[in-house]
Design a protein that fits this description.
The complex is a heterodimer of chains A (about 270) and B (about 80). Chain A is an alpha/beta fold. Chain A contains eleven helices and eight strands. The chains are: A alpha/beta (about 270), B alpha+beta (about 80). The structure holds thiamine diphosphate, iron/sulfur cluster and magnesium ion.
């Protein structure tokens, strides 16, 4: 199946701004799904609210466009009742880690089999460029005109500490790597977290004088390194990409089935 | 041995928003934006069919159509 067969063409061109990284993530995700050979009917995509979350409207799977920060809760409900389906949960950085922060850490802890994709543009794009918990110290935003003094989360460390069994990071510049990582994440049995560094030229880019979408992607190239690279020791400010965690743990739906079995034994 | 040969760049002008990502990152400088800020293949003969423009397009607006060309080692 060609990647174009997975989209709802009638809603194109999409609403994302020129150069928005979210479209590149959608593009890579389509390639990952096509390479795995998943059928449209086997996929459920659940999203919350944000520019990023609009992705579910454009893809021709079973899709749920739910409420801000709660996509993982809705996805958990779907997965528990239909564990044979493949659950994909794309989220914005605000969606996943401000309002949805608690859902995020607990979903990691449960190890339910689904793929959370954090489309991290370090800003609230949809609502006009407010800073997010991923903007970081020293950045500018419409709500931080004199500079943001909040430290940011490290999504990879947070997901790892919370118990996610697959944790990875890539960027919109590294499209081959991103596609391979998304593929591995979807195939992984358990809770997968993939952070993709994405550009919002309209808000984060403008407020932080980062130039065009291409300039922002050049920065992803220059400021990130593959996991375990020597360069990171020389310059600790570089951000690592790759697969940080890939391990097997009891999966939530399977454990739940066992509990049902136990409860029914005495009946 | 099979090598990819360019048939054509299929560009959806209704979907292209002229962000210039494909133009910027094409390793062979094949692409340009026209006076309406839509991408076109200015130098198709230089295309190496890496498809990076297609993969990095946020708008799914460019596709590199290719065919396989057989190359014989003894030629
Ligand atoms: C309960 C609730 N609170 C606040 C909002 C307003 N709101 C909409 S999107 C959004 C944040 C979007 O940022 P992010 O999740 O990073 O997505 P992006 O637009 O950057 O892709 C906020 C705060 C809302 N829709 N619902
Ligand atoms: S505001 Fe930012 S995140 Fe939203 S569509 Fe535009 S570039 Fe993308
Ligand atoms: Mg955001």
């Amino acid at each position: 199946m060609a990647t174009k067969d997975y989209i709802r063409e009638r809603f194109f061109p999409h609403i994302w701004c020129p150069g928005c990284g979210h479209g590149i993530i959608m593009n890579a995700l389509l390639h990952a799904i096509e390479q795995i050979g998943l059928k449209k009917n086997d996929i459920v995509m659940v999203s919350g609210i944000g520019c990023s979350s609009r992705i579910s409207g454009y893809l021709d799977f079973h899709t749920l466009h739910t409420i801000h920060g709660r996509a993982l809760a809705f996805a958990t409900g779907v997965k528990i009742s239909r564990p044979e389906l493949t659950l994909l949960v794309p989220m914005g950085d605000g969606d996943a880690l401000s309002i949805g922060g608690n859902h995020f850490i607990h979903a990691c802890r449960r190890n339910i089999d689904m793929t959370a994709i954090v489309m991290n543009n370090r800003v609230y794009g949809m609502t006009g460029g407010q800073y997010s918990p991923l903007s970081g110290y020293g950045t500018y935003a419409t709500t931080a005109p004199y500079m943001n003094i909040d430290q940011d989360f490290d999504v990879v460390q947070l997901a790892t500490a919370s118990g996610a069994t697959f944790v990875a990071r890539s960027t919109t510049y590294h499209v081959h790597e991103m596609t391979a990582i998304l593929k591995a994440a979807i195939l992984h049995k358990g809770f997968s977290v993939v952070e993709v560094m994405s550009q919002c030229p309209t808000y984060f880019g403008r407020k932080n004088k980062e130039g065009s979408a291409s300039d922002m992607m050049e920065k992803f190239r220059a400021r990130t390194v593959p996991l375990g690279s020597k360069k990171k020791q020389e310059d600790p400010t570089l951000i690592e990409r790759g697969i940080f965690v890939d391990k097997q743990m009891p999966e939530y739906c399977e454990e739940y089935q066992k509990i049902i079995g136990r409860a029914m034994k005495d009946k | 041995m099979a090598k990819l040969k360019l048939k054509r760049h299929v560009i959806n002008r209704d979907w292209c928003k002229g962000c210039g990502i494909c133009v910027h990152f094409c390793p062979q400088h094949v692409l340009e934006l026209d006076d309406q800020d839509k991408v076109f293949a200015a130098r198709p003969q230089d295309c190496v069919c890496c498809k990076l423009c297609e993969l990095r397009c946020p708008d799914l607006a460019i596709e590199v159509e290719t065919e396989e060309e057989m190359i014989w080692a003894d030629r």
